[in-house]
Design a protein that fits this description.
alpha/beta; Rossmann fold; 4 domains; eight-stranded mixed beta sheet; 25 helices; 39% helix; disordered C terminus
Amino acid sequence: MIVRSYLEYARGEKKLTPWSVLAPLGWIASALVRLRNFAYDHGMARSQESPVPLVSIGNLTLGGTNKTPFVEMVSLEIAKRGIRVGGVSRGYKGKTSAPEIVGRLDPGSFAGDEPLLLQHRLPGLPIAVSNDRSEGIALLRQEERVELVVADDAFQHRKLRRDADIVLVDALCPWGNGRLFPAGLLREGARALGRAHLVVITKADQVAPGRLEALKEELAAWVGRERVFCSSLVLDRWDRWDGNWKSKGDENIPGLPVLAFCAIGNPASFRRSLEQHGVNIRAEFCFRDHHRFTAKDLEVLCGEANKCGARALVCSEKDIYNLPAGWIPPMPLYVPRVKTEITLEKERFWETLIETLRPSILVASNGYGEDSIGVILGEKLRKALPGAEIMAFPLVGAGKTYSESGFEVVSPLAETPSGGIVKYSIFDFVRDLRFGLVKIIIEQLKSWGNLRYRLRTVFCVGDVYLALQALWGQGAPPLLVATAKTAYIAGHWGVERFVLKHRVGQVWARDEETALELTRSGVRARFSGNPIMDLAGSRGGAPYEWPGEGEHRVLLLPGSRNRAYGEFPLLLEAASLVSVEAECRFLAVIAPTIDRKELVARSAGWEMGVTGPESLRKGSTEVFLYDGDLSAAARTADLVIGLGGTANQLCAGLGVPVLSVEEKGKYVQKRILQDAERLVPRNPSALAEAALQIMANPDVRFHMSRAGIARLGRPGALDEVVRFAVKDLGLGLREEVHSRLCGNAGGGRES
């Protein structure tokens, strides 16, 4: 009676009862759950990756939504499509401590009723039981070689990341009294459905059509109408239990007077289902969910059955696994064997689930040079994972580099006067603030939030700030290809090392010294090559054939930010002065972010050439314009006069002497490049004089060349990043599983 009374209150059937005193506890529970979800949503609590695709079947209420039959349906259907499937369960009230395959348990062990039921319903599919589901999944992968795991009741298990979250909602009692346990049936509020990929209304056939449509609209507000589906329970057959399962029960169950008992989350639904199938219920007994029956319990039940004239007992399938070992019922005990079916739009349900399992990857970057590296990373990922969805999130600019390479740009436009957050100039920073930098950052965080629960993996190309923004917006640990910070300058601050250690999945440092610095701090860091050097030859092809005539080949690099328009004339005038003293060929490399027409328009005193490759002329000096692969031109260059950052470093790494101007940012870069770069005052005469000195001295050029190659290091970082993603993160398996599911979309062979 106590259980029934509480359920009537928790389900909202009675408003004013003594149980109402629990309401404050429900408010406290709600606050704690929201706090916990906030921590996971923003990366304050760390989630773990699964080595295999993971599909979770969960709900918002305490039991009663038919999760177990749904797990069975999903597992069998995926297995039919040629995928090796396993199941994992926490094993409520189980006695196993270490993870174990249910079929291997000792006779005296108890895994919990639901894992035992799943093992019975899914012969041939391994079911693991573990308090730590991640350990159970690892066991399934290692010993059973499963390719996909279906997790029973894991929606609230935020510690483990899922590829697909299917949330079941009971049509008869979707929210109970609207309060969280112990004041109600809810584990968390309806807003949690925002992280679900699919929502299924169970027992849809047991409510009126109008009520069903109203519930669909209510759910659509959280997940979208296209992701809401309906299911119903179908009676497959009646089985009999006499200490062992009898495959076929009595066909004359309808009309037979019975005593019904159950220990499930929604006993009212069980009774309604029995009545729909014509069962003559003489008496009914309800126990709390997962109740383990004692011999005394069963003695009382059998006695009551005799008193009310019942000729048989009826219970749910799950209850069988909570009966005392060796108990033989003194009268027939029948069990309705039910299964779940998607009603209406069945094909769309499976298509939606399969599409959800498609790996979704985002490459984020926070600089124009980083965009170029991000594009190469994206292209390598696209080649290794042809079925994956790969998007781009540049923090600076409009992402032209990505869009021209065929990647969807999902970040808001972020054009600022400086071309990015400039840490070397307070004046540029103030200009950006006046332009609306704070608003831009807020919009970026909002865009990150809109992508939450949609992405499988985030790759960050840049610095700790970018990784932290991705973490705050996504909640999941990103991977960082670190292009900015280096031990050659100042290394990482303590707070940066903390973030990298506790909230970033893996770091690829730009040099070995930095990797060692981070590793000593407990960061998962490695050096696999300098990502900047992966830009070299990224477009393939032979070295660039320079136009024009002249003994020396000089590259002019105005940079990729907006300041390039104002500083390009400085390079042109320097070239003009150099050409007076030496026969040179000049090639100005125009970054994809720079508008060529505007650049030319601001080159006062210079005229466009009328023949041959596009060029600017002034007197006897001709500067050719080039927007192709920088490394292809740099490989045969003798000198770089550059105002850029990443571009200057790339050229130095290719062994080309670099000449630049004295400013705060370049002083910092000089600490990286050291003898590979020379800095002079910001004027054409100083640049021209230094250029002539370097070109006239082969020993100086050789020394600067060797220094650049030594300081920048080798390429290969991005190949290692892709290998890690494919193998260690399991993206390769995920892409393969998705591809096979798509190939077998119309059905498949029995697994």
